[in-house]
Write a structure and sequence with these properties.
alpha/beta, Pectate Lyase C-like, 13-stranded parallel beta sheet, globular, Copper-binding protein, repeat, NosD_dom
C-alpha cells in the first residue's frame, strides 16, 4: 500500500525545533519590545521593597538622613528594591544570585548629601539641615572612613558634588572614592550565615546568664515562715541578700517584694484572692523558687495605667499591664525557678522593663479556650532566658515585645494560640522547644525583626509550624509535621537549612517578593505539596531532598532540576502519571523555556541540584515519631548547665 512520503522530522529534530520556538521565538515576542531608553525616575523610598534594617530599628532611625539609602531598578523585576546602607546594596548587587533572580541593574540611585550640610554626631549618627534628594550612583562620589555609623554598620555617604564630598571628608577625616572604586570592593552581607555562627556563643552566654542568677538561691537563710506567720511581714523584715524560707502550707496573697531577697518555698502555696497579681516584684536581683501560685486575677490590661509618649505606648497598655501569678516591673536580674501556676485566667509570669531575668522550670496552665486567657510568659522591654518550662492552653506560651537577645529554649507548649510569639524583638534564639496543638502557629515571628535564630524545634499539628519574618534569620534543624504549612520562608536575606518538613499539607511556603534567602539541605517528605510560592521572582533553592522528585517511570534516578511549584513536578511524589508526563519532550521543552525566560517563571521555586537521599536522617526519624506518637514520643532535653 502506497502511504506517500513521510514528512515527519526525526524525533531529535522535533525536540530541537520545539525548543527553538519555545526558547527563542516566544521570548522574543514576549520580551523583545524595545524599552524606552530614558532611565526611570527614583521613587519615594517607602514605595520600594526595602532590605537592611528591621522595623524596630527603622522606628528608632526615623530620620531619613540618618542612613544613606539606595534604590535599584532591575531589568527582570517589577518592583524597585531599596537598601538601607551602601554596604548592604553593594553586597546584593554583586551577588550572582541577584542577577539570576532579578536581572542586571538598569539604574541605581543613592541619597544625595550635597547641599544638606551634613555632620557626624558624637554617637556616629549623620545629622543634616535638610533631607537628602536622590542622585544616580554613577554620577556620585562617596565618602568612606568618616566615622559615621548606622544600625547596619559603617556609613558610606554619597554626594553629587565632589566639592561637598571633599569638605565633608576634610571635616571628618574620611576620604572620597568613586562609584567604580566602591563597586570593585568586596562587601559581605549580614545574612543568616552570620547568625548561624553566633548560635553557639548565644547558648554559652545564656548558660552564664542562668548560672549567675542561680547563685541567688545560695543566699543565707534569715527566717523560716510557718503557716501561722504573716508572709508579707517576714518578707519586709528580711535583710537584703538573704533567703526567706517558707514551710509547706498555704499562705494568703497578694504579696510584694521590694528589696533584693530570695523567697524559697517548695510545697508552699501562695493563694491570691482572684484580684490582681499574686506576687509583685519591684526590686533588682529577687529570686522566687519552688512555690505554687493560685488565685490570679482575670484582668489582661489595667484601665488605670497611663500611656507614655513612645511609639509603642498603646502596645504596652494593651499587653504589659495585666494580672499575673508573678509580675516583675522595673526589676532587673529576676530569677523565677520551679514555680507552678495550676491555672491563670491572665498571665503566668509578666516581666515589664525588667531585663536580665531567668525563668526556669515554670509550669503554667491557662483556660482551654485561649480567648479566655493570656500569656504563659510575657516579656516587654525585658531580655530574658526562658527555659525548661511548660505552658498548656491560654493565648501564647511566650510573648515578647522589644526584648532583643531573649533566649527561649527547651520548653514545651501545648494547645495555645501561638507557642512562641515574637514582636519587635531581634537577635532572639528560639531553640530545642517542643510544641503541639497551637491553633494559629507554633513559632510565629512578626514585625520584621533581624538576626533571629530558630534552631532544633519540633512542631506538630498547627496551622503554620514556623512562620518567619524580618531579615538575616537562621532557621535550621527544625522538624515540623501534621500542619497546614510547615515553615514559611518570608524572612529575607536568611538561611534555611537542615529542616525536616513531613506530613504537612504544604512543606514550605515563600511569600516574600524579595528572593534573597538560601534554602538548602532540607528534607521534604510525605507532604501533600512539598512547597508553594506567592507571586514574585523565581526562588532558587539548592541541594534539598524532595521525596521521589528524581524518580522516573522506569525506576531509575533522573539527573535533573526540580520545580516543586510546577503542577507536574510538584506531584511527582504522589502520582506515577505525573512522572510519565515529566519525562515527555513537551514538558522538558517547557522547563527549558521556564529556565531561559525570567518573565515566565514568576511565583516559582526551582532546585537545580536536588539530592536523592535524606540529609537529616536522625531528624527525619524524630519527626516521624512526633507524627505517630505526639510529644510523648519525643522527650524534652533539659538545659545543660549545672546548678
Amino acid at each position: 500500500m502506497n502511504r506517500g512520503m513521510d514528512w515527519r522530522l526525526p524525533r531529535r529534530w522535533q525536540v530541537g525545533l520545539m525548543l527553538f520556538v519555545l526558547v527563542v521565538v516566544i521570548p522574543a515576542a514576549l520580551f523583545g519590545i524595545p524599552v524606552d531608553s530614558a532611565a526611570p525616575e527614583p521613587v519615594p523610598f517607602e514605595d520600594t521593597r526595602a532590605i537592611g534594617v528591621a522595623s524596630a530599628e527603622e522606628v528608632a532611625a526615623d530620620d531619613t538622613a540618618a542612613i544613606p539609602r539606595v534604590q535599584v531598578f532591575y531589568s527582570q523585576y517589577q518592583y524597585v528594591i531599596g537598601y538601607y546602607g551602601l554596604p548592604t546594596a553593594l553586597a546584593a548587587i554583586t551577588e550572582p544570585a541577584t542577577r539570576q533572580q532579578y536581572g542586571h541593574p538598569l539604574v541605581t540611585y543613592v541619597t544625595d548629601y550635597s547641599s544638606t550640610t551634613p555632620s557626624v554626631g558624637d554617637d556616629g549618627r549623620i545629622d543634616t539641615e535638610r533631607y537628602p534628594a536622590w542622585t544616580a550612583a554613577s554620577d556620585a562620589v562617596f565618602v568612606v572612613d568618616s566615622g559615621a555609623t548606622t544600625p547596619v554598620g559603617e556609613a558610606i555617604v554619597p554626594f553629587s558634588d565632589r566639592d561637598d564630598a571633599t569638605a565633608f571628608a576634610d571635616d571628618t577625616g574620611g576620604r572620597v572614592v568613586s562609584w567604580t572604586t566602591l563597586s570593585e570592593q568586596s562587601f559581605e552581607a549580614d545574612d543568616g550565615a552570620v547568625v548561624r555562627d553566633r548560635v553557639s556563643e548565644q547558648r554559652a552566654d545564656a548558660d552564664a546568664w542562668v548560672a549567675n542568677r542561680t547563685e541567688l538561691l545560695d543566699r543565707e537563710r534569715s527566717v523560716i515562715v510557718g503557716s501561722d506567720d504573716d508572709l508579707q511581714t517576714a518578707i519586709d523584715d528580711a535583710p537584703n541578700g538573704t533567703t526567706v524560707a517558707v514551710a509547706p502550707g498555704q499562705y494568703p496573697g497578694s504579696i510584694e517584694i521590694d528589696h533584693p531577697i530570695t523567697l524559697r518555698g517548695p510545697g508552699a502555696t501562695i493563694a491570691g484572692d482572684g484580684e490582681g497579681s499574686v506576687i509583685s516584684v519591684t526590686a533588682d536581683r529577687v529570686a522566687i523558687q519552688g512555690v505554687t501560685v493560685t488565685g490570679v486575677g482575670n484582668q489582661t490590661r489595667n484601665p488605670d495605667a497611663v500611656a507614655g509618649d513612645t511609639w509603642d505606648a498603646n502596645i504596652e497598655l494593651g499587653y504589659g499591664h495585666g494580672d499575673a501569678a508573678i509580675k516583675a516591673t522595673g526589676a532587673n536580674d529576676t530569677l523565677i525557678a520551679d514555680v507552678t501556676v495550676p491555672h491563670t485566667p491572665a498571665n503566668g509570669v509578666l516581666l515589664r522593663r525588667s531585663p536580665g531575668g531567668v525563668v526556669t522550670n515554670l509550669s503554667v496552665a491557662g483556660p482551654e479556650d485561649w480567648h479566655d486567657g493570656f500569656m504563659g510568659v510575657i516579656a516587654m522591654y525585658s531580655p530574658t532566658v526562658i527555659e525548661d518550662s511548660a505552658v498548656t492552653d491560654g493565648r501564647d506560651g511566650v510573648y515578647l515585645h522589644r526584648s532583643d537577645g531573649t533566649v527561649i529554649r527547651n520548653n514545651t507548649f501545648r494547645e495555645n494560640r501561638y507557642g512562641v510569639h515574637l514582636m519587635y524583638s531581634s537577635e532572639t534564639l528560639v531553640a530545642n522547644n517542643r510544641m503541639a496543638g497551637q491553633e494559629y502557629g507554633g513559632i510565629t515571628v512578626m514585625t520584621d525583626p533581624t538576626r533571629t535564630a530558630i534552631v532544633g524545634n519540633l512542631v506538630r499539628n498547627t496551622a503554620t509550624g514556623i512562620s518567619t519574618s524580618g531579615s538575616n534569620a537562621y532557621i535550621a534543624h527544625n522538624g515540623v509535621t501534621d500542619s497546614r504549612i510547615g515553615i514559611t520562608t518570608t524572612a529575607i536575606n536568611s538561611l534555611y537549612e537542615h529542616n525536616v518538613v513531613r506530613h504537612n499539607n504544604q512543606g514550605m511556603r515563600t511569600g516574600s517578593v524579595v528572593a534573597t534567602s538560601k534554602v538548602t539541605g532540607n528534607d521534604f517528605i510525605a507532604n501533600d505539596r512539598h512547597a508553594g510560592a506567592s507571586a514574585g521572582p523565581l526562588r532558587v533553592w539548592r541541594g534539598n531532598h524532595w521525596e521521589d522528585a528524581l524518580a522516573t517511570p522506569s525506576g531509575r534516578t533522573a539527573e535533573r532540576a526540580y520545580m516543586p511549584t510546577d503542577p507536574v513536578d510538584g506531584q511527582r511524589h504522589r502520582s506515577m502519571a505525573r512522572r510519565t508526563v515529566a519525562a515527555s519532550p513537551v514538558y522538558q521543552g517547557l522547563r527549558e523555556l521556564t529556565g531561559a525566560s525570567p518573565g515566565l517563571r514568576s511565583g516559582s521555586i526551582l532546585d537545580p541540584d536536588p539530592v536523592e537521599a535524606s540529609q537529616n536522617q536522625d531528624l527525619v526519624e524524630t519527626t516521624e515519631t512526633l507524627h505517630t506518637d505526639g510529644l510523648a514520643g519525643v522527650p524534652a532535653t533539659p538545659s545543660p548547665p549545672d546548678r
